[in-house]
Design a protein that fits this description.
Elements (H helix, E strand, L loop, with lengths): L7 E2 L7 E10 L2 E11 H6 L3 H6 L1 E7 L6 E8 L6 H13 L6 E11 L5 E2 L1
Parallel strand pairs: 3-5
Antiparallel strand pairs: 1-2, 2-3, 4-5, 4-6, 6-7
Length: 120
């Protein structure tokens, strides 16, 4: 990861989840991000019925920095986690200057069918 434009896929891309590592910053501190990317549909299927009834929004759940490492889980409304998703995530995290620990939701509320297809 000597180049800031590159990342390391710790799990294969192309599925519903992946784990990636790349350089960036949080709260003005240079860090190495370790990020669990998941599709919003995958996250939705793991919720209880009561939680599903409320719907879900895309989110970033960032943990406090520990030993120069920033950990996060990010749920994206995409059909799969592929290289373009990773690259866009890297840009988003690098440009979000005031990102701090906690859960940050954004976008419209979504609901999905039993197989992950979106429904109204």
């Amino acid at each position: 990861m000597a180049d800031d434009r590159h990342y390391e896929a710790l799990e294969p891309l192309g599925g519903q989840t992946s784990l990636v590592r790349f350089t960036g910053s949080m709260q003005g501190q240079s860090i190495v991000w370790t990020v669990r990317l998941i599709t919003l549909a995958h996250h939705y299927q793991r919720l209880s019925s009561a939680e599903r009834d409320k719907g879900v929004r895309q989110f970033i759940k960032a943990e406090p920095i520990a030993n120069g490492v920033g950990s996060a889980m990010i749920a994206l409304n995409l059909p799969c986690i592929d290289e373009p998703a990773v690259l866009k995530t890297m840009i988003m995290l690098r440009q979000w200057k005031r990102l701090g620990p906690g859960r940050h939701e954004y976008g419209e509320t979504r609901r999905f069918g039993a197989v992950g297809s979106e429904r109204a």
